[in-house]
User: What shape does this take?
Amino acid sequence: MIVIKGIAASPGIAIGKAYVLEDEEIVVNRIELPRELLRAEVKRFKAAYKATHRDLDAAEAKVLKVLGRQHAKLIDAHRLILRDTLITQDVPKRILSEGVNAEFALSEALEAVNQQFEKMEDEFFRERRHDLFDVGKRLLSHLLKQSKKNLADIKDDCLLIARNLLPSDTLGLHGTRILGFATDLGGKTSHTAILAQSLEIPAVVGLSDVSRRVKTGDTVILDGEQGMVIISPGPETVAKYQRVQQKTVAEDKALEGLRGLPSATLDGKVFKLEANLDSPEEIKAIVGLQSEGIGLFRTEYLFLNRSSPPAEDEQAKVYAGVMRAMEPKPVVIRTADIGGDRLSQLGIEGPKSETNPFMGLRGVRLFLRHTDLFKTQLRAILRASHKGHSRILIPMVSSVGEIHGVRRLLAQAQAELQAEGLEEPRKVELGIMVEIPAAALILDALLPLIDFVSIGTNDLIQYTLAVDRINENVTHLYDPYHPAVLRLLDQIVQATHKKGKWVGVCGEMTSDPHAVPLLVGMGVDSLSISPRMFLRIKQAVRALKHSVLAKLVKEALNCGDSEQIRKLLADQGL
Ligand code: PEP
Ligand code: MG
Assistant: This one.
């Protein structure tokens, strides 16, 4: 039995056989396929081939627009390589004659072309090898994307073990037989972790080398509470974890009586408790929890795992559906925060090639660059505004100019809809995520332009402490109790209340029963919680005393060290 310690990313325990996902960057395995699957494999290769052609067309259009015809010649060179019979004919031939997977057949064919290039005397032609690899990589990535999607074809329950999973990969796990996942990379508040919680898939991340230590077929226990993976456990350990699984089910059942009860502290201060919505599957659960609204509707899932953006009609339908389900309670729809670790396949220029994507073209920055995408989403939200009570929330705001930009587009969208004779949209409140320290520090200038504030602690912590939220090497420094974070949070709450507006918190801090007392003590107006933790947090809030915590927060704000703050909480039994 081997125990590997990592980072608890999504609670719950999963026990089962491992399925190890190949590392798409490095390994292309030779997989022998049964005869009857070979035609389908050739088809799969042809689909990837077509997708690569489309990539090149899109890249050419972009190069022509930005750099001109001269530079677009590079794309022609790539197209020539792609059309080479060594690729178009040899790869299907190899698949059929050798009975192997498309990735392997392709890598063999590429190697053959590479050898031809190497033999060339002319430096210019030898250098074309780089173009060859570029084209090969594009083709491979399309093939591998498809094989990831084939996770849906897995017929038996299993635990997925991988070097890394992107948020888009995690979304793809929904509805599969995958009971949980463990990865070498990743942090606690990565979007991969957040999505795993939403989909109720137990997950452990930041395990360094789990993908090399586990083999497909090994029995594995994944402990999403303690952040542990146990390889080849003995029967006693399995039995122990099965008991824990049963206990959790019983505890969750006991919390059900809290639905519908008021969310006030023991001394009568009322906090609005809302839920975060990350994927459409959660809506039923959220309605069942009787939450007081949706405090954060993360709309990114609509933009991931697809090659063209969602149309206005499609979006309007989704928003209307969620609002109708929640009516008359409010739904805070956040405009898509693409970028960072949430890379879309929409071919949006920028994010894919950034070396530091969390500091890059993300959220409102990206949407103010691609105003067509932004306006489509705003129009869809406005069109749905009759179906219930919605608010618009803008992510990653750092300046006044950005709000002016948003307001301009919103006014345009409104005017267009009116001119098109559509029912006049209702007035929708506009709020901003405060998740960049700059926004917190200039809140007095931002507040007159907006109606409400929602604090995104996940990013606020990463940007305040300069700790990448998905980097397992610095997880120990990602500290919600750091005095700098608490001082900033308190400053945001005070500044917003001073201007008579309301302020909620929607980051993962709201789902941490130990951190919630601090938010309650600061007197935030609402907490938007991951549905999984909603009743547990409600139970915690109902057992707290606001007056005691307000004093505790005052003391905490004078501390210079998070250990002192944790001790203050521990002394109160929190
Ligand atoms: C946050 O940053 O706290 C937040 C809620 O947004 P996201 O996790 O989607 O970046
Ligand atoms: Mg954020």
